[in-house]
Structures are given as C-alpha cells and as structure tokens.
Amino acid sequence: MSHVKAGGTAKNTRDSAGQRLGVKLFGGQKVKTGQVIVRQVGMTKRAGNGTKLSRNFTIHATRDGVVKMASRKVRTFSGKSVRRTEVTVE
C-alpha cells in the first residue's frame, strides 16, 4: 500500500505589490500645478511654500515653478530638534 506523509502547509505564499513611494521630482526640476513631488509614509519630508501635503502625506505642487529641497531643523513632540528636508516650489 503506497502512502505519502502530509507535507504541511505553506505559510509564506502571500505577497503584495510595492507602493511606488519616493521622490518623483528632484531639486532643480520643473513642476506644474498638481504634480506629485514626493510620495511617502509619514512626514519624512516637509511641505514648504508652493506645496501642499495631502491626507496620505503625498507632497503636491500648488503652482508652476522649480522644485527646491532644503534641510532645516524641526522640533519634535518631545522637544528634540531633528533635521528634515523641506520641499518648496519657487
């Protein structure tokens, strides 16, 4: 009588597609109103003049211009100062 023992179940078969996060337009590049500049999870980059932050933390341009990225100090909730990149459109 032929018999094969149970092979068990695979647990790591699920996978999801990437979210395509990251910087879409870098400093010095031209941008039009409404274009996505940065897609991110959380506020790793801050929205400055000429940009707006949407509900999922995506940074969009509010006017035509050139993207500029600058580093500045931001105070966190605990009072600690940390460097964050500020995205502006000039």
What does this structure look like?
The protein is an all-beta fold and 90 residues long. The protein has a single domain (22-89), classed as RNA polymerase II/Efflux pump adaptor protein, barrel-sandwich hybrid domain (OB fold (Dihydrolipoamide Acetyltransferase, E2P), Beta Barrel), CATH 2.40.50. The chain is 0% helix and 41% strand. It contains no helices and eight strands. It has a four-stranded antiparallel β-sheet with strand order 1-3-6-5, with no helix packed on it. Strands 2-7-8-4 form a four-stranded mixed β-sheet, with no helix packed on it. The N and C termini lie far apart (80 Å). The mean pLDDT is 92.
Provide the helix percentage. Answer: under 10%
CATH superfamily: RNA polymerase II/Efflux pump adaptor protein, barrel-sandwich hybrid domain
Class based on secondary structure composition and strand pairing:
mainly beta
CA-atom Rg in angstroms: 22 Å
CATH topology name: OB fold (Dihydrolipoamide Acetyltransferase, E2P)
Percent of residues in beta strands?
35-45%
Shape: elongated
How many domains, as an integer?
1
Looking at the overall shape, the CATH architecture is Beta Barrel
* Order of helix and strand elements from N to C terminus: EEEEEEEE
Biggest β-sheet description:
4 strands, antiparallel
